[in-house]
């Protein structure tokens, strides 16, 4: 399924994998109000799509995402309502990704800066080309990357996050992998092969199980240790009542491939 090429975010689905592509390379795929609205709509759409098991978030051009559209922000200097609305919408989109009942893989080629880096950090997984670079450079222009900080600080150590936020310097893809911002760094020639191999591996699992697991992962992260164990024990006991859990266990014991019903 393919959207018209002039859409801000294009949508293509095949074999349980939906690719959402930021499609404004001439604007460095910046997160303008319009781009955020388009991405939010696509995320809502894919959340309710029973055929989608995995989402790949990609971008056209040599910049993955340059963050917010500074020209748009400059034109709205006098509108606090616009500014607050912009950052609230961006925060909503990042939370949509986290709460999406399907795993989301960022396919990163090129530069991801400010809210673009936040977008990568908000995805469940990220694969980057070895030429990709990352930064939270707001400090360089007097606008600290406060909202990007939320996602960044939840994915890398405090000192790594603070270094990026305080210096604003670009981080190479290999360094981003060391920091935990991305899962894998590969030659750009095999970026798609790597991303979609990972996506296909995940898409072979029970969609119902993926939904349970992703939700539980983010829920338990915010809990004290004892509470997290109590919560996840309940999740596992409830998970065992699902058709797919019982089918998967039986298939494993019977040495056959499971037949998922996504229930």
UniProtKB/TrEMBL annotation:
<comment type="similarity">
    <text>Belongs to the enoyl-CoA hydratase/isomerase family.</text>
</comment>
<protein>
    <recommendedName>
        <fullName>Enoyl-CoA hydratase domain-containing protein 3, mitochondrial</fullName>
    </recommendedName>
</protein>
<dbReference type="Pfam" id="PF00378">
    <property type="entry name" value="ECH_1"/>
</dbReference>
<dbReference type="InterPro" id="IPR001753">
    <property type="entry name" value="Enoyl-CoA_hydra/iso"/>
</dbReference>
<dbReference type="InterPro" id="IPR029045">
    <property type="entry name" value="ClpP/crotonase-like_dom_sf"/>
</dbReference>
<keyword id="KW-0809">Transit peptide</keyword>
<dbReference type="InterPro" id="IPR014748">
    <property type="entry name" value="Enoyl-CoA_hydra_C"/>
</dbReference>
<dbReference type="GO" id="GO:0006631">
    <property type="term" value="P:fatty acid metabolic process"/>
</dbReference>
<dbReference type="GO" id="GO:0016836">
    <property type="term" value="F:hydro-lyase activity"/>
</dbReference>
<comment type="function">
    <text>May play a role in fatty acid biosynthesis and insulin sensitivity.</text>
</comment>
<dbReference type="InterPro" id="IPR052377">
    <property type="entry name" value="Mitochondrial_ECH-domain"/>
</dbReference>
<keyword id="KW-0276">Fatty acid metabolism</keyword>
<keyword id="KW-0443">Lipid metabolism</keyword>
